[in-house]
Amino acid sequence: MANHPLLLMLPLVTSFLVVVNGFLAVAALEEGLSTTTRDTVMGQRHRGGRELDECQLSRLNSLEPTNRIQCEAGTIESWDPNEDEFRCAGVAVVRHIIEPNGLLLPSYTNAPQLIYIVEGKGIQGLVLPGCPETFQSSQQQSQYGGSRERGSAGKREEEFGERGTAGQRGGQLQDQHQKIRHFRQGDILAIPMGAAQWVYNDGDRPIVAIVLLDTTNNHNQLDVNPRRFYLAGNPEQEHPSQGERRRHGQQPFSRRGGQGGGEGTGCRNIFCGIDAEFIAEAFRVDMDLATKLQNENDNRNNIVKVEGRLQVLRPPRREQEMERGSRRETEWETESERHSRRGGRHGGRGYTEEADSSEGDQEENGVEETLCTMRLRENIADPRRADVYTQNVGRINTVNSHNLPILFWLQLSAEHGVLQRNAMMVPHWNMNAHSVIYVIRGQAKVQVVDNNGQAVFDEDLQEGRILVVPQSFAVVKRAQSEEFEWVSFKTSDNAMINAAAGRNSYIRALPDEVVANAYQISREEARRLKYNRKGTTVFRPEGQGRSRRAEA
């Protein structure tokens, strides 16, 4: 029995299993390390591989636009990406102002974009490669040729409809295209790198949009210079190089474009550098139509005025819903469902047209949500969705990869805040991201402190200006107008802050004795430091503290 063959083989089998398991574990570890290393290297290729002294900032400045392009139906203003603050954060910023009935021509960029809609409403088309054309006209509309969507192009569609294409029904050419999305004031729009997009103002007031380009994102394999590639028209570059400025005789904050802005500069969309014969072959059209894609005599610039109204296939806008936010949510979502959809430190999921159009009430699990159906919009200005709120003081809304999953791939997030007069946001620092603050309205006293304890910014921050707060620099804000409103773009998909005061602060988490010895104060004074401020993030100064500030 002791010499049974199975018993004799047992140690050998055990050793073999141990070796195999060890080999698999090492292989998995090596693969994990390889993936981690590869991701780390890719992540550091730009953001970590810049000059070591780019964030050695002894002084920060609030920045204004330095370049302006006047277009037929709007204005484009850009900040100089070579400013030390932008070089440190690795971003570039543009402001688009699109007049009613204005169309921002199709384009794409070499870096992911995060767009905040300061004012207005409109529609956006985002072209994602490989995604289906899910918007199409009905067969009846195509048959009778009287659909409103075809508009002034209906006759041309009838002429080309006889040729027979993939979009043809009953001898007539159907209009079909990828999804069109509505947006409104307070929305954050996420745009992947290289994805072509266009924007149209179908409202009655201008659209004002702040666009952040993360030029040091690891998906940008070019240099850190922001580049926008236009697919139509004869546009100006939003961020002209010094050579282009000299070539155009441009001075700082010049006003170019308009009716004569393109004189003598030739064509500047991507088809201009391609031979017209190649274009004709690629699109299977005649040479006359191919040359029209190059728009050599188009002087309208980047934002053009649409003749009549832009007639495209899209679901009707629910005006009442757009104005009142997401009132429907309370009708079809229970409180527990809303809670289960929140994630991160400041969760909260906003109403989107994508959610409205989905069937059923199943929440996305990250596997079923593909790029083609992924939500790209979140409203962060709705006070009813505030993540931090103190009555008559202020509120803060955030969006990150937990409530807008595409931000995980873009590695960006955003914060929207409002402070009433004299209200403050506690001193804090961004743990894992740079913060690019744009003032929407009002003004505030802002102080920023570096690692040497020096105030690198101690000024009023006013409407329309940008302040870049580098990672780990301490910052505090106090509203000086009736209402101070801002949006902050952050260079992490799940940006976190650490407060210096308040209920959730670092000092509240320290033992009394540590506070007393660190600051050379009594134990009683240490307890007052820890517990006197009951609020969390936003508060209004009271008593003697407020009186001293008022006298100052």
Automatic annotation (TrEMBL):
Residues 1-22 form the signal peptide. It holds the Pfam family Cupin_1. SUPFAM superfamilies: RmlC-like cupins (SSF51182). GO terms for biological process: seed maturation. GO terms for molecular function: nutrient reservoir activity. PROSITE patterns: 11S_SEED_STORAGE. The keyword Disulfide bond applies. The keyword Cell inner membrane does not apply. Residues 339-348 have a biased composition (Basic residues). Residues 134-178, 232-265, 314-367 are annotated as: Disordered. Residues 58-291, 378-527 form the Cupin type-1 domain. Residues 353-367 have a biased composition (Acidic residues). Keywords: Disulfide bond, Seed storage protein, Signal, Storage protein. Residues 147-162, 316-338 have a biased composition (Basic and acidic residues). Hexamer; each subunit is composed of an acidic and a basic chain derived from a single precursor and linked by a disulfide bond. Seed storage protein. Belongs to the 11S seed storage protein (globulins) family. This is Cupin type-1 domain-containing protein.
